[in-house]
Backbone:
């Protein structure tokens, strides 16, 4: 009797504790709690914001986008005047950010490749030079480098009259960097079409050569001939069309240079600092990528008597690239994000022109912050989506 | 057995050619192997010569060491040499910011306390290193905050500061007792009070009473101290940089662990929120987050709340660092073989037991280089707070060039400040490489 009673008793008691220890019930309770907590906090924050906005007579709508911004921007890629709308300012900022990112990425990749290979050199002193460069540059803050390049170098350049002329038409002074601008003339459009067609032709040739190699084993020098096509055909067209491209070279007039293209000193400082800083990380990525190819692969290529450039092109690089590409892309994203440091030296990128100037002028904190973050999110999410596809393609196919 | 068995004795090896061994051999192999290699050596030596020569000339041989203004420097050597007096005059500000001069000792004592706290971690016979490390993370900030901030302290804050002091006392009591007596402080206290044979409950009570006694003494010490309040807008220089990065580092590790576990959790709601948070904060630049918090945090809080600017920056840096740390730790979690989870399940461990005893120790260990790399990144990223107007180390250096006496003096302060940053970052990365090797030695045995 006693036993059954105790049994029943513990049954009743344990119904609660059993529920407490039931994984499914726990999961639901935990998730509901988290949801309530997070959403509650968000609602609380939104509520506070509404009250605060009302108290300060501010609003959070996007209506201001059509309003004239009323301030000038020092450097723009797309035409912009003082009376243009805020929406236009947003696009000016985006274009400037993208310009900085693209130019810095190109230079950083070239520099990083050189330093990375130098780091692998079997010459001791070159290795030391490369290693010191990497250690010094990546262990000092990027912002410090940007500001040091700006205040310490590009701002101290001579006045336009005593400019440094690097080559004919490439001029550096404290107003910026001047370079010749291409001026299209009649027939330029045709030239562009010819160029595009020859590039497509070269790519098609390369694909065809690759297929033929797989099928018949006969090699065709598709890269060399492709380069030849891309160079020779447009050159011929250029001569044939009567040289439809001239250069507008900057010249000194009075106190300043006129003509050509120019970028402000802040742009130069930003590009130099971003390229140098990022090149250290790229160099390390390149080095680890090449070192990741196991020695056996090189020995196997040697045993097959592959020529050196085939070993590099067909054995080392495809395997190294698989290791190099993902971190390389994330460095490219970092460059894009780091270009926002432009604000420290007054280059009108998205953050500086939109999140700072426009925000202070219009007071629409919420839409402006949301649009800025939206842009950066869009860039990095789309790049990571592409990366996922790429990673799936190059993953080791294990059999 | 015949005695005259012929034994084959090989002729002794001939020594390697002189020019392939020793110093000569090394030089030949690494510097002058063939013509391209020789050319590279010449190029490398030339680069080294030019760069090192230029820096030495500028920083030492041509430099001006005493002057009253930048004008005097420029008159003496022009731009060919550094003008150090400006940096000397401002040096105290570079380190302590605008902290009142007569209170600077508080900063020194505060950081000395941190050093004292950490020293036992390197003492060989100390066993409770994990506990000491954790106490440094959890209790040291309580003690330091009062030294740095000062001002009125209510009863609760006094108790918290006293808890910090108790922690420091406990750390050293532990360290000394483990080094010299070879037993933990708890056992030592119980033994020396003659309770060694008492039952478990009584021993525990003794230990608690001892802790309480130390805590009360600490309370008395703390309440007898009274420091002038130093508002955070006077904080600056290296001190501010260390405070922000210290808080960021301390916060980011536990927060990152929670976020990473959340993202890998099989509860969809939690996984979704964690992923959203991580992706949002990782895909935007830190500058925008700082700006957002700088302009929006006052809007988010209930009307009338004052949010001080340093706090806004710290919140931004902490959340940003946590998101990055979460992805690093997730990488470590993913590298743990499935068998480890299955083994833990087979032993009947709960989720939290599995995580804290089996998975996390291994995951953290393999991610040490990346975690330290993240700390270094965070330390460098603290320079960004200058953009929202805080005078950290870098902004202080820039301010020198805006001083009327030293107008335009930028390169020299930046040079000094970069060296400070370099020393910190390089030390951290070297330490992490050493730690990695030490841990790998255990694994690759």
Residues:
């Amino acid at each position: 009797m006693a036993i059954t009673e105790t049994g029943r008793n513990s049954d009743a008691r344990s119904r609660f504790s059993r529920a407490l220890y039931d994984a499914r019930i726990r999961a639901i309770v935990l998730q509901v709690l988290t949801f309530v907590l997070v959403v509650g906090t968000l609602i609380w924050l939104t509520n506070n914001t509404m009250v605060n906005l009302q108290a300060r007579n501010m609003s959070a709508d996007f209506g201001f986008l059509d309003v004239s911004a009323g301030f000038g921007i020092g450097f723009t890629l797309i035409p912009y005047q003082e009376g243009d709308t805020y929406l236009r300012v947003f696009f000016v900022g985006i274009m400037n950010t993208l310009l900085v990112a693209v130019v810095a990425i190109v230079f950083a990749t070239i520099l990083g490749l050189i330093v990375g290979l130098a780091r692998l050199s079997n010459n001791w002193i070159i290795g030391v030079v490369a290693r010191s460069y990497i250690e010094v540059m990546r262990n000092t803050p990027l912002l410090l480098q940007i500001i040091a390049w700006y205040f310490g170098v590009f701002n101290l350049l001579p006045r336009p009259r005593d400019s440094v002329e690097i080559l004919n038409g490439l001029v550096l002074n404290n107003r910026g960097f001047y370079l010749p601008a291409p001026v299209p003339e009649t027939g330029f459009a045709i030239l562009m079409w010819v160029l595009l067609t020859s590039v497509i032709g070269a790519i098609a040739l390369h694909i065809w050569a690759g297929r033929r190699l797989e099928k018949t084993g006969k090699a065709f020098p598709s890269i060399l001939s492709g380069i030849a096509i891309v160079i020779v055909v447009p050159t011929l067209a250029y001569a044939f069309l009567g040289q439809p491209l001239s250069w507008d070279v900057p010249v000194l007039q009075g106190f300043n240079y006129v003509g050509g293209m120019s970028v402000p000193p802040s742009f130069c400082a930003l590009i130099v600092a971003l390229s140098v800083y990022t090149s250290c990380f790229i160099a390390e990525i390149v080095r680890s990528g090449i070192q990741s190819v196991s020695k056996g692969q090189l020995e196997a290529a040697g045993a097959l008597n592959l020529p050196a450039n085939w070993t590099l092109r067909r054995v080392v690089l495809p395997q190294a690239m698989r290791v190099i590409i993902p971190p390389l892309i994330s460095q490219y994203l970092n460059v894009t994000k780091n270009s926002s440091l432009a604000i420290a030296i007054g280059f009108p990128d998205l953050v500086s022109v939109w999140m700072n100037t426009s925000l202070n002028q219009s007071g629409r904190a919420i839409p402006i912050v949301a649009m800025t973050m939206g842009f950066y999110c869009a860039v990095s999410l789309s790049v990571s989506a592409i990366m996922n596809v790429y990673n799936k393609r190059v993953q080791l196919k294990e059999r | 057995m015949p005695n005259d068995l012929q034994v084959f004795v090989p002729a002794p090896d001939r020594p390697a050619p002189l020019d392939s061994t020793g110093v000569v051999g090394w030089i030949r192999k690494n510097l002058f192997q063939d013509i391209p290699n020789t050319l590279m050596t010449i190029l490398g030596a030339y680069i080294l010569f030019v760069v090192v020569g230029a820096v030495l000339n500028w920083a030492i041989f041509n430099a001006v060491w005493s002057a009253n203004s930048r004008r005097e420097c420029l008159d003496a050597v022009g731009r060919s040499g550094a003008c150090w007096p400006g940096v000397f005059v401002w040096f105290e500000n570079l380190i302590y910011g605008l902290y009142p001069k007569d209170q600077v000792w508080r900063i020194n004592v505060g950081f000395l306390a941190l050093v004292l706290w950490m020293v036992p971690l390197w003492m060989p016979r100390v066993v409770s290193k994990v506990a000491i490390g954790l106490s440094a993370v959890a209790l040291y900030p309580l003690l330091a905050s009062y030294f740095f901030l000062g001002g009125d302290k209510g009863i609760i804050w006094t108790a918290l500061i006293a808890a910090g002091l108790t922690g420091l006392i406990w750390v050293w009591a532990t360290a000394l007792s483990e080094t010299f007596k070879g037993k933990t402080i708890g056992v030592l206290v119980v033994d020396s009070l003659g309770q060694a044979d008492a039952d478990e409950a009584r021993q525990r009570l003794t230990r608690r009473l001892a802790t309480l006694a130390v805590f009360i003494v600490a309370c008395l010490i703390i309440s007898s101290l009274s420091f002038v309040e130093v508002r955070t807008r006077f904080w600056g220089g290296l001190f501010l940089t260390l405070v922000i990065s210290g808080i960021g580092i301390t916060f980011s590790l536990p927060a990152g662990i929670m976020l990473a576990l959340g993202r890998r959790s099989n509860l969809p709601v939690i996984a979704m929120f964690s992923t959203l948070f991580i992706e949002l904060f990782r895909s935007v630049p830190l500058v925008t987050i700082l700006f957002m918090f700088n302009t929006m945090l006052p809007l988010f809080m209930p009307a009338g709340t004052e949010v001080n600017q340093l706090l806004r920056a710290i919140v931004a840096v902490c959340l940003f660092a946590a998101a990055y740390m979460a992805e690093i730790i997730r990488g470590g979690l993913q590298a743990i073989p499935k068998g480890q989870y299955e083994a833990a399940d087979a032993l009947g461990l709960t989720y939290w037991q599995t995580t804290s005893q089996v998975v996390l120790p291994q995951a953290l260990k393999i991610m040490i280089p990346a975690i330290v790399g993240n700390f270094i990144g965070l330390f460098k990223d603290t320079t960004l707070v200058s953009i929202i107007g805080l005078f950290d180390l870098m902004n202080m250096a820039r301010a020198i060039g805006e001083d009327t006496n030293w107008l335009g003096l930028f390169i020299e302060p930046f040079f000094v400040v970069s060296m400070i940053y370099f020393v910190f970052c390089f030390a951290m990365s070297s330490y992490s490489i050493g730690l990695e090797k030490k841990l790998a030695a255990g694994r690759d045995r």
Observations:
- Chain B has three domains: 1-61, 70-99+236-445, 101-229.
- The mean pLDDT of chain B is 87.
